[in-house]
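Suppose you are handed a protein chain with no further information: no name, no annotation, nothing but its sequence. What can you learn? This example shows the usual starting point.
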Amino acid sequence: MKKSILSLVMVMALIVSVTSCREKKAEDTVNDAVENAAQEVKDAANDAKEATEEAVKEAADAVEDAANDAKEATEDVVNDAKEAAEDAVNDAKDAANNAVNDAKDAAKDAVNDAKDAANNAADKLKGH
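A reasonable first move is to predict its three-dimensional structure. Written in structure tokens, the prediction is:
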């Protein structure tokens, strides 16, 4: 009986030591899995941060490009309007000069016609 009790104690000690080794291995495996998961989460967070920074930079560049395009378009419109106004002023000036010249010519023609009429009238009076 002593031998069987002693054998039973030995078997129990062996079972306890095997079980505790298994628990340690399982604990190590769980710890490794947790560390790996934590590292993957950290890597994913870094990747997301980098992607966000890149997206923000690209958006800022796009906004800057759009602002420059709008500025250039506005400058073009202003220049076109200025040129159109200058052309309109020059056209009005030319039209006014033409009207003045036409009026001068008409006045000269009227004066010449009046002189001719006066001369004709004077000739008729002399002739009678």
